[in-house]
Every structure is written in C-alpha cells, then in structure tokens.
Amino acid sequence: MSLSEVEATTESEQVEQAAGNLRKEAWKRLRRDPVALVGFALIAFFVLVAIFAPLIAPYAPDAQPGRGMITPTNIPGPSADHWFGLDASGRDEFSRVVYGARQSLLVGVVATLIGMAGGLLLGTLAGAFGGKVDAVVMRIVDVMLSIPGLLMAIAIAALLGASLWSVMIAIAIINVPVFARLLRGQMLAQRGSDYVLAAVSIGVRRRPIVLGHILPNSISPVIVQATLTLATAIIEAAGLSFLGLGSADPRVPEWGRMLADTQRYLASAPHLAFFPGIAIVVAALGFTMLGERLREAIDPKYRR
User: Fold this and answer.
1) What's the CATH architecture for 24-51+93-302?
2) Is residue 131 a contact partner of residue 192, using CB atoms and an 8 Å limit?
3) 5: pLDDT confidence band, cut at 50, 70 and 90?
4) Which residues partner with 71 through β-bridges?
5) How far is Cα 138 from Cα 3, in angstroms, rounded to an integer?
6) Which residues of 45-78 are buried (b: 16+ CB within 10 A; e: fewer)?
7) To the nearest whole percent, how much of the chain has pLDDT over 90?
C-alpha cells in the first residue's frame, strides 16, 4: 500500500471515529436533557397506546354503546362509564381517540419514511455527482419548494382520491425536497474533506467513497429532520382528514376526521373537539421536543 493510500485510510478512520464520538456525546446529552426525556416519554406513550389499543379501549371504534342516549339536543359528555363522553352516533369517544392513535401515527411514520427515502435518493444523486445532475435535481427541488406545502398536499390527495394512502403519499411528496436539499448540502460539505480528496487522488472509485464514507457521515442531520417532520406530518394528516381527504370510511377513527365530524356540535358538545385536538397537539409536541433537542445535541451550532 502506498503512502497516499495509508494517509487516505487513516484520515477516513479518524473522521469515522470522530463521528462515532459525536454520536456518543449526543446520546449522553439527550439522556441528561429533561426536555428530550419528556418528548421521548410522550412519543413512547402514544406508541404504546397505538399498539395496545384493543386492550386499553373499552369498546370497538365502531361500537355504539350509547346510541339510545343520544337525542337531537343532547350528546352526553364525560362520565364514569364513558370517560371522554359519546359522539353524535353514540360511539365511545375515548375508544375512538385511542384507536385514532394507530391511524395518525401510521400515517405520520409511513409518510415520513417515504418522503425521507425519496429525499435521500435525490440528495445522494445531487451530492454525489454534482455538475449537471446536481443542477437538474436542485431545479426540481426548487420548483417543489416554491409551491406551498399544504396546498400541494391538498391537490395531490384530491387527485388520488379520499384514502389514508392518498394522505400518506401527499405528505411524503411535500417532504421530499426538504430531505433532498439537506442531504445534498451535507454531502457537498463532506466532498471537500481531506480524506475524500485523498481517496480521489489515489484513484478510489466514486461509489465506495459515496456509500462508504460521505453518505454515512452526512446522514445524522437527516435523521434529526425526520423526527421533526413526524410532528408536522401528524398535523398535516389531521388537516387533510379534516378537509375530507382521509379515509372515506366513517367507521375508521382518525383524529382529524373526528374534528371535522364535530363542527356542527361544537356549541352543545365541545368535548368532541377537545380530546382529539389535545391528542394531536401532544403527539406533535412530543416529536418536536425530541427532534429539537436531538438537533442541539448533534449540531454544535445549536448548542447553548
């Protein structure tokens, strides 16, 4: 092995070791950060609720145990038998909020993963090849970013038809340019590193450099952004469902759809909007708190 190859290998190992030390330090910071711990606890709470919904909820989401108690002028509120009250169809509101965690988290996680995958593909192409490929990819990204995200999501979901998959795809598409631009910027910064320049000078092929060194050292900010995107994805999913672009089946409990169904009853039964609204806010808050603290732990620029 030549001297140049040894130097390139040594520099690469030093960068990887530094990245590993940074991750360990970030983990230590998170474990001592009360805000991050609260965010993690909120996320864990909703995940457990979604997983064990059949054990937690006293009724099925489409059951109508209080159908005989509903009148045109009276929708019973919270009680000992029905903790969150009943909805206009006599269904147990607590059970529907619990089962709704499944739908809301599923949409948020799937949409974020699809958006991140698309962003990673475009960002890797732009960051690895540069030149014309970078120019073309970034012009596509710029066009997507020039359109308001919620407006684009509404248009896409409307074209695809009312369903949870339409909501997932719509939210995923509007998040693709965010991940693509972030990863591309990180990869361009890594391309100028000494270990990359040394590897190129000794003839190492582009593929092992990109996949083995540049991409792994550029992925951390993308993971942080995914955590923050989960919060907005939950809110956007609720917004699209509120507009009637979610599941067309009224028996499927989804927090945004539950809010939409309560508009005519807000004066007489405000509890129907209160509980799903609180669920949306608290779930999004958990991901935001963890994501913000994770970003501060990883990126020195955000540390206090």
Assistant:
1) Orthogonal Bundle (1.10)
2) no
3) very low
4) 74
5) 38
6) ebeebbeebeeebebbbebbbbeeebeeeebbbe
7) 33
